[in-house]
Amino acid sequence: MRDNLMTLTSEERNPASMNLPHMSVAESTALMNREDEACAKAVREVLPEVNETIEQCIAALRRGGRIIFTGAAHSGYLGMLDAYEANATFGTHGEFVSIVAGNFTDIMKTDGSAEDSAENGALDLQAREVTAKDFVIGISSSGRTPYVIGALSWCQKQGIPCAGLVNNKHSLVSEVCDRVMAPTPGPEVITGSTRLKAGTCQKMILNMITTVTMAQLGNVYENLMINVPPVSDKMRARLAYILTQAAGCTLETAQARLTECNYQIKPALIMELKQVSRCEAEALLSEADGNLNQIL
Q1: Which residues are within 8 A (CB) of 125 and not within 5 positions of it... i.e. 6 or more apart?
Q2: Count of C-beta atoms within a 10 Å radius of residue 32
Q3: Which of 12, 93, 114, 239 is the most buried (most CB within 10 A)?
Q4: pLDDT tens sequence across 73-111
Q5: Maximum Cα–Cα distance for the chain, whole Å?
Q6: One of 85, 175, 280, 282 is an active-site residue; which one?
Q7: What is the structure's pLDDT at 1?
Q8: 287 in catalytic set
Q9: Could you say which of 35, 49, 95, 115 is catalytic?
């Protein structure tokens, strides 16, 4: 059968690593490094599908929706990581949501059987009140995880736009979503350990989705982070450094501007570059729906 585990590319044995336990450390790391070169090529081959997915993400956020990453085990953890890190990088407030099968609270005590429930894949989306305003991305290395299939099938029945991120061509996931991104980097160094090359491909694509979506929506100025939340001394120091780079001002000036703006970098940058007051800067931001790039 097509969904048999042994028929999947990600489950094939890799002839290059058959002698792995008897290789030296240097030989082993060189092998893994060579194998990882396949990841960039695999992702490059599916960039058209990635681009279409990002366009859907942008559209969802513009209509007030969210991007929902859903998956099980390592695939789910990668979605969770990018959703969480989007806040630290872009100061997001719920734009990216992650759901991991089992709704775990301790990553070391996840219920491994949770991925077997297609019903829970749908129920977990319903519990988070996912609607047609949102965009759902189901992540599954094999492309056959019941939890992810259940989530995406429910989306299609409800008219909710959705995509799949898998590591095998012609997967079951591809049959229950609007589009599928399927980078296939080949057999793993350890057979079936899809946290390796498959996971690397997923992480690369998730990085693209969050980064490019936020940049297109004005949450990046040039190539600088301009929505960093000022939650710690480290973050406040980073904001001051970013402002010096963006405005070409001294660190002292940057700190003064940020203090005046309660460490909100967008009005601080407008004030410095346009030499306007804080009120004028905030008014300009309001008129541009917070998109700094429409002002500068």
Answers
A1: 68, 70, 99, 136, 151, 154, 155, 160
A2: 17
A3: 239
A4: 999 999 999 999 998 899 888 999 999 998 765 555 556
A5: 68
A6: 85
A7: 36
A8: no
A9: 115
Question: Among all chains, which residue has been given the structure tokens 């695939």?
Answer: 75
CA–CA separation, 128 vs 27, rounded Å? 47
Cβ neighbours of residue 143 under 8 Å, at least 6 residues apart?
Answer: 8, 164, 166, 167, 168, 171, 172, 173, 174, 180, 182
Does residue 3 surpass a pLDDT of 60?
A: no
Say which amino acid occupies 252. Answer: E
CA 237 to CA 255: how far, in whole Å? 9
Q: How many angstroms separate the first and last alpha carbons of the chain?
A: 57
Q: Which amino acid is at 59?
A: A
Which residues share a beta bridge with 224? 221
| pLDDT per residue as tens digits for the range 167-181 | 999 999 999 999 999
Active site residue 115: yes
